[in-house]
Write a structure and sequence with these properties.
elongated; mainly alpha; 11 helices; single chain
Amino acid sequence: LQLKKHREKIEDLVENSFTFISKNRHDEAKTLLDKLSVKYPNESLILYGYGLYFLAIENDKKGISFLQKSIELDPKFAYGYINLAIAYYKGFQLHKMMDTINLMFKKAKYEKEPFDIAEERLIDTEKSIKKHYDLTLEKYCEGQRFYEKAYNSMLNSDFEESISLFSESLNILPDHAQSFGNMGICYAKLGDKQNALKSFDAALLVDS
């Protein structure tokens, strides 16, 4: 009973921060969340509140990080997943959006609103990808995953592996300017000026 009252108190206070966020009173929301986090460290609902706050002020990187921490602590909380999925969608990281929604369906406690939003988001995104790229959402996400692996390899200075992975991404997403541009950087790092210039030219052609 004591734990239930404790949780309800936190929920009421965090709900106040949501109200501030909805009214663009972001400083007040942050002040309230800061006070709560001192008293209740590592509380999933407070981390969720921080996630919404940072997304509201367009610090998506921090917002995503807090939402990830929130669902790690409370993997049954559907609203954490759907807000994380929407953040990924806005950043056009559709593979992460899809993975997050699938994880929500698998782990979260069913709540009608977030589950309905998730299903609608998947259907709408599938239609959009089919219309603009003539691909299934799953196939498009496969191309994004190759790009992400390639980019991480590039950051680790594994340039030959990166070129191979960027090529895999381009096999699926042939108009992906970032893949061409980063491939050009990798060729340049390897001293292959001819292929570097070809890749940069291809990136410019796609972006033009």
